[in-house]
Amino acid sequence: MTVTREPSSAAPRPGRHSAVRSLLRLWPYVRPVRGRLVVGALSAVVASCLGLLIPLTLKWIVDGPVAGHDPSGVWLGGLALLVLGVAEAGLFGVRRMIVAGPLARVEADMRAALYARLQRLPVSFHDRWPSGQLLSRATTDLMLLRIFLSFPLTFLLVNGVTIVVGCVILLQQRWTLGLVLLAPVVPMVVLCSVFEERYARTARKAQDQIGDLTTVVEESVLGIRVIKGFGRHRGQERAFRALSWRLWETELRKAGLLGTLWALIVILPELAIGAALVLGVVEVGDGELSAGTLVAFLSTALALRWPVESIGFLLAITNESATATDRFFEVMDTAEASAEDAAAPVSTGVRVKEPGLRLEGVWFRYPDAPADAPPVLCGVDLRVRPGETMALVGATGSGKTTLTALVPRLHEPTAGRIVLDGRDITGLSRERLRELVAVAFEEPTLFSASAAENVLMGAPDAGEERLLAALAVAQAEFVHELPQGRRTRLGEQGLSLSGGQRQRLALARAVIGDPRFLVLDDPLSALDVHTEALVEAALREVLATTTALVVAHRPSTVLLADRVALLSRGRIAAVGTHHELLHTNREYASLMSGPAGPEGGDPR
Ligand SMILES: Nc1ncnc2c1ncn2[C@@H]1O[C@H](COP(=O)(O)OP(=O)(O)OP(=O)(O)O)[C@@H](O)[C@H]1O
């Protein structure tokens, strides 16, 4: 068995739009640099059209100075060719200089917008979307879009104009030969539209598979300890190889489609040029056409080869970019549709003059839970008085963590409401709610910043004194022993620390802001008995002035609380002091004394 997630199509996605409609959605990001893009495109159009003057100059040289044996005229013609070549190259260079910087800005702006949106998305969104899918959208997809804006977007226009101008020149030179050259246009248009549809599907598949692969790599790196500990590296390797194999197959299909299109796009015009050459030579032989005109005609046709041939390649990148745009906006749109505030039940606005924390008829079911699964919480009523510490006890899987996540609005209740100091939390701004409520989870997450920065996340404006006090409460003074003291940078996710050290830093982060409400999800589970006793002694002082809800598995943690609430089958089954419940409630007594609880869980 491997620990990889399902290929992701987990990431929900709507049906595909046309490539143009998808790409038009980039406009708000491209708008600020539109001037530069237009100037860049115009320079490239002028450069490309200057290239088309070269065959006309050749015609002048052949029919004029060469036919008239005029060496100075040939030199003049050569000089004109040189000037045209230099001007063409110079203008293409100018275009690059004009657009490179602004387009890097567009990419950075889009990435920043995506990152900001990801930060604001509800936890339920992150539960649903594999992280690799989000990573690949923020990196490879956005890079692809920058490449599209700087190259294919301009060159689809430039090559289109060049082909039209070239065709006019060809028809003007000799319309009969011109028609021969234009004959492949209709089959090529049909081919391109069939290709567009097929390539779009395959490109989408490949980009999603890159996301899946990124997820596997990310999970393997983050979970390297588990993988090594269980000797699962071969299984992981197999999973990775299977996914890369699938990606390889899709990439081969893409290459096959592109190869077929390219071959036809190259062969059809070559055949037409061959036919025109034969006809042209016959006409020159019959004296109906000058040699210079034939040279100019064929040079123009050859000059149009690259613009025509590149169309397949440009269409391919355009298609992939449309897919990348869809993938980018799938996240941005989901965010708009399911942003926390939008998902929140409408605030009743009722002000109850009652301090403390109250849960009223709270129901909750995870959005991605199976349809036949019962709700995790089924009408929870609980009141925590101001300054009181309420322990929340229940069997494993009874919904304690879920309940605590509702208070800081990491999830929204399906029904019912949560009231802090008489105000429905849905009526409080996010900032106000974060000021009022601090949380510490059983699985402490630290960031690759210094120990002090991690703690100060709980109160960015707190000074040195409060930082030291919070570290003392959490018995996290070990940070002073680190190589650079509390300024020591912690490794990724704080993995350079022990589980207990991480928990203590997370606890310090929760208490530093001196919050009115403290929600602790079994915050001492990784501590040894001695350290736990020290933290509890210090925490008692903090809890004396704070209204707290503390998930507890062990009697020692329960004893921190004034009262205990027993969560069972989605409801609060009993509330009382630890000793009252021990004597009056068999389920509670069994949970606290060790044997498996009634839900079959391990009460630890
Ligand atoms: N993101 C999720 N999506 C769907 N179901 C979930 C999700 N998270 C938790 N659950 C389910 O919700 C139920 C309650 O989980 P929760 O983590 O709240 O239990 P708990 O009482 O805190 O357990 P423990 O004591 O082991 O920490 C479990 O059945 C779990 O499988």
TrEMBL record:
Keywords annotated in UniProt: ATP-binding, Cell membrane, Membrane, Nucleotide-binding, Transmembrane, Transmembrane helix, Transport
Q: Which residues form the ABC transmembrane type-1 domain?
A: 38-320
Q: Which GO terms describe its molecular function?
A: ABC-type oligopeptide transporter activity; ATP binding; ATP hydrolysis activity
Give the matching Pfam families.
Answer: ABC_membrane, ABC_tran
Concerning InterPro entries, the annotation shows:
AAA+_ATPase (IPR003593), ABC1_TM_dom (IPR011527), ABC1_TM_sf (IPR036640), ABC_transporter-like_ATP-bd (IPR003439), ABC_transporter-like_CS (IPR017871), P-loop_NTPase (IPR027417), Type_1_exporter (IPR039421)
- What membrane topology does the annotation report for this chain? Multi-pass membrane protein
Which cell locations does it reside in? Cell membrane
List each copy of the ABC transporter domain by range.
357-594
What's in the GO CC field? Answer: plasma membrane
Membrane-crossing segments per the record? 37-62, 74-94, 147-171, 177-195, 255-282
- Coarsely, its chief localization is membrane
Question: What name is this protein filed under?
Answer: ABC transporter ATP-binding protein
